[in-house]
Sequence to fold (285 residues):
Amino acid sequence: MIKFSLMIIAFFVLSTFFAFTSSISDDSTAFAEQSKKKKSVYIQNNDESQIQVNKYANYVHFQPEWNSYPSNLLFDVTNTWNRTSTIVSDSENTTTPKAGALTHVNLLHYLDNKPYLEVQYDYLGCNYQWIHYAKYSADILSSKLDFAAGKQLDSDHSSALFSLIPSNVNHDKTNPASVYSQFIPICTSQDSTSFEFGVRIDDKEKGFDVYFVDSKDQRSNYHSDSEEFVYYPGCAGINYQSFSGTCHGVDKASGLLVVIPDNLDKPLTKVYVKLKEISSFSKEL
Fold:
C-alpha cells in the first residue's frame, strides 16, 4: 500500500513537472526575444491593469553581539499586487541593471546597536519584475503540497492564506532588545488598498509576531519607544508559528513588521512571507 501511494505521488510530481516545463519552454523563448528587442531582461507590459509578482529573499547573518550568533535567518518574500502604471524601459531608466536581477547586495546594519549583515537576493523594489521560471514552477508545486499537508488554506500558488498555528514558546515582549525585526514593504499602485498576508517559520521550537504597519519607521518605534509604535487595528498575529490575515485601508508606504526572538539555534531559520493585494481588480496569473 505504501509503495502504491509513493508511485502515485511520484507520477503526480513528474506529470506536473513535464506539463509545466512544456509551457515554460514557450514562455522562455518569447521572454528572451522580448528582452533582446528592448535591450532589457525585465517584463514591460502596457496593460491598463495587470498582476505583478515580486519575489526576493533577505538573508540575515547575525554578528557576535546577538544571542542568535552564529545562526542565520532567511526571509523568502512573495508580493503579488495589481499594477496600473507602465514599467519604464531601460532607455528611460539608466540605473536599471542590464544583466538580470540584483543577485547579491550586501548591507551592514545595526539594530539596538548590534550589527548584522543583510544580503538581498534579487530585490528590485516594485519597479520591475524578474521571472525565475525554476522558482515559479517550484512555488506552484510546493503550494499544492502545502495545501495537501494543511499548511495552506487553498492550493493557489499566489495565496497568502496560511493555516493558523499558535506557538507554545513565549518570548519576552517587554524587552525589544531580545528580538530581531524585519520590515517587509508592500507594492501597490493605489493610495489605499487591501492585502492578504501570511507568515510562516520553519522552526517548530520558535514563534514570531507580525504587525501590518503604516511605514518602515514603525520598526524604530518598536525598538526604541513602545508608546509610539502603532499598527493597523486587527492586522496582527502574536506568538504564532504560522499566521495569515487580511488588512484593509493600508497606505502605499505600509508593510509587515515580522518580529523574531533573538534565541535562534538552527544554522538557518527560514521565514516565508506572502503578500497579495485584493483590491477590486482580479484575474488569473
In short: The longest helix spans residues 2-38.
